């Protein structure tokens, strides 16, 4: 049992003035009250922790390595970035993956994330053969999240082939499950009994898995598990899908699966009007990764029409060019404003606030991506998973509560994050992860090996 004094608490979508929060031994909120208890720890502004709905942990090792035009190249795009990424995927071992993921997750926690959905396809040994322990690499990712103390939804990826009607490339040999049965074995090897851990079902993309296997993976698995896939990120993928499946990728999903809020479509950048509307109405969730999509030159999701149709959307940091959720949210909105030459494009009625819309929508949909059924909005009964903000940060000082989320999202930087608490325990305090030194040493060793 612990008491926390909170200067301002964003609980269940409303700001509460100074209050006292009691957490039980599991870190669940047992009481929120105005009366002062005998002893307590003081926090500044407290909001629910951010939810990172799309991560490829190993890619954190290579940020900065693909920001130049390769010698002899005339242009650069997603596909040349993928070459650099495959170079790393081909050599990272379990110890190195764990060290990189631990550093990455500790940095996410420093930026206020308390949960991550890890889209994991580096399954096999360097020679492409399964490890003796089939789930070795996935278990290393869980170990990284455990060490850091954040919630992980592990999404073991079904990856079957190189492209529509094409065998896998040699560089993809670590990713491959040939059949649905192989994939289900892999999935079964990754069950962990821990409140911080949950599992999801995941298909890499329509190009990487045959139509029949996509349906089997999603239909023949526990319907309570969240389902994820990459979709319509690149125009080339849409063209190939039209050629081989006769439909645009999202249209194919809409026509072949009963999409619901179980489904998480990552990127969904290139949708036509009908797909956008039908997808929104299906209740499925789009996971938008603004800085990665920007870095890779993917394109812009049509958010305004999607919001008008009440579509769900979450954010992810994907390739980890950026780990600050505020920057993801800001870019998500600014991309639309720049395209439409308008302001507050998500506010459909007078009185609505862009910061509140962005925060509330991505928190709600982030839970769908994690497969978390409760609200996690800092009500009694919710875990105390929070980002603690510095109330003295200049952009927050003196602001009425109704302006705080917009001041935070549009105008603050990472110095606003004072700490992160998961299940009632400090994970990051005074801007540093509590195991910062050990994590940094192991990461440095791995990076020196990987980047030499
Ligand atoms: Zn991805």
Give an account of the 3D structure.
- The chain has two domains: 2-48 and 382-437, Roll (Urease, subunit C, domain 1), CATH 2.30.40; 50-370, Alpha-Beta Barrel (TIM Barrel).
- The protein has 14 helices and 18 strands.
- It has helices spanning 78-89, 94-110, 136-148, 180-188, 211-219, 235-245, 249-256, 273-282, 290-295, 303-308, 325-340, 354-370, 401-411, 436-450, and strands at residues 2-11, 14-16, 19-23, 29-33, 41-48, 50-55, 113-120, 151-158, 197-199, 201-203, 227-231, 263-267, 285-288, 312-315, 386-389, 417-422, 425-429, 432-433.
- Strands 1, 2, 3, 4, 5, 15, 16, 17 and 18 form a nine-stranded mixed sheet that branches.
- Strand 17 and strand 18 form a beta hairpin.
- It is globular.
- The protein starts with a strand and ends with a helix.
- The model has no long low-confidence stretch (mean pLDDT 96).
- The protein binds zinc ion.
* Strand residues, percent: 15-25%
Ligand catalogue: zinc ion
Q: Structural class, judged by helices and strands? A: alpha/beta
Tell me, what's the shape? globular
User: Low-confidence spans: pLDDT under 50, at least 5 residues?
Assistant: none
Question: What is the fold's blueprint, element by element?
Answer:
Layout: E1 2-11, E2 14-16, E3 19-23, E4 29-33, E5 41-48, E6 50-55, H1 78-89, H2 94-110, E7 113-120, H3 136-148, E8 151-158, H4 180-188, E9 197-199, E10 201-203, H5 211-219, E11 227-231, H6 235-245, H7 249-256, E12 263-267, H8 273-282, E13 285-288, H9 290-295, H10 303-308, E14 312-315, H11 325-340, H12 354-370, E15 386-389, H13 401-411, E16 417-422, E17 425-429, E18 432-433, H14 436-450
Parallel strand pairs: 1-5, 6-7, 7-8, 8-9, 8-10, 10-11, 11-12, 12-13, 13-14
Antiparallel strand pairs: 1-2, 1-3, 3-4, 5-15, 15-16, 16-17, 17-18
Helix pairs in contact: 2-3, 2-14, 12-13
The chain binds zinc ion (ZN).
């Amino acid at each position: 049992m612990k008491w926390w004094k909170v200067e301002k608490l964003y609980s269940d979508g409303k700001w509460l003035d100074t209050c006292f929060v009691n957490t039980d031994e599991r870190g669940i909120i047992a009481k929120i009250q105005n009366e002062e208890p005998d002893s307590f720890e003081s926090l500044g502004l407290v909001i629910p922790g951010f939810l990172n709905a799309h991560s490829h942990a190993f890619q954190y090792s290579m940020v900065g390595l693909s920001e130049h035009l390769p010698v002899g190249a005339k242009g650069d795009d997603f596909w040349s970035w993928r070459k650099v990424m495959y170079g790393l995927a081909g050599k990272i071992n379990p110890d190195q993956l764990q060290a990189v993921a631990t550093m990455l997750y500790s940095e996410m926690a420093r930026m206020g994330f308390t949960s991550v959905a890890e889209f994991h396809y580096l399954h096999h040994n360097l020679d492409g053969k399964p490890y003796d322990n089939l789930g070795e690499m996935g278990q290393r990712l869980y170990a990284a999240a455990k060490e850091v103390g954040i919630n992980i939804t592990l999404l073991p990826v079904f990856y079957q082939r190189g492209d529509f009607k094409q065998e896998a490339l040699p560089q993809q040999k670590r990713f491959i499950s040939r059949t649905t049965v192989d994939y289900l074995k892999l999935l079964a090897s990754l069950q962990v009994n821990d409140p911080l851990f949950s599992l999801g079902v995941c298909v890499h993309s329509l190009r990487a898995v045959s139509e029949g296997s996509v349906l089997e993976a999603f239909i023949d698995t526990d319907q309570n598990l969240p389902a994820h896939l990459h979709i319509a990120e690149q125009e080339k993928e849409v063209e190939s899908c039209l050629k081989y499946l006769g439909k645009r990728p999202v249209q194919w999903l809409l026509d072949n699966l009963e999409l619901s809020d179980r489904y998480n479509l990552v990127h969904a950048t290139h949708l036509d009007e009908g797909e956008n509307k039908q997808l929104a109405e299906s209740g499925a969730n789009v996971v938008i990764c603004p800085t990665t999509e920007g870095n890779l030159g993917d394109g812009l999701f049509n958010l305004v029409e999607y919001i008008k149709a009440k579509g769900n959307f979450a954010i992810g940091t994907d390739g980890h060019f950026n780990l600050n959720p505020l920057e993801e949210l800001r870019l998500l909105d600014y991309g639309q404003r720049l395209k439409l030459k308008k302001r507050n494009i998500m506010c459909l009625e007078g009185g609505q606030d862009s910061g509140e819309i962005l925060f509330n929508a991505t928190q709600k949909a982030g839970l769908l991506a994690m497969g978390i059924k409760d609200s996690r909005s800092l009500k009694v009964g919710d875990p105390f998973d929070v980002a603690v903000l510095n109330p003295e940060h200049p952009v927050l000082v003196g602001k009425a509560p109704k302006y705080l989320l917009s001041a935070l999202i549009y105008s603050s930087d990472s110095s606003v994050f004072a700490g992160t608490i998961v299940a009632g325990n400090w994970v990051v305090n005074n801007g540093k992860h509590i195991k910062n030194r050990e994590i940094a040493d192991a990461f440095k060793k791995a990076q020196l090996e990987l980047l030499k």
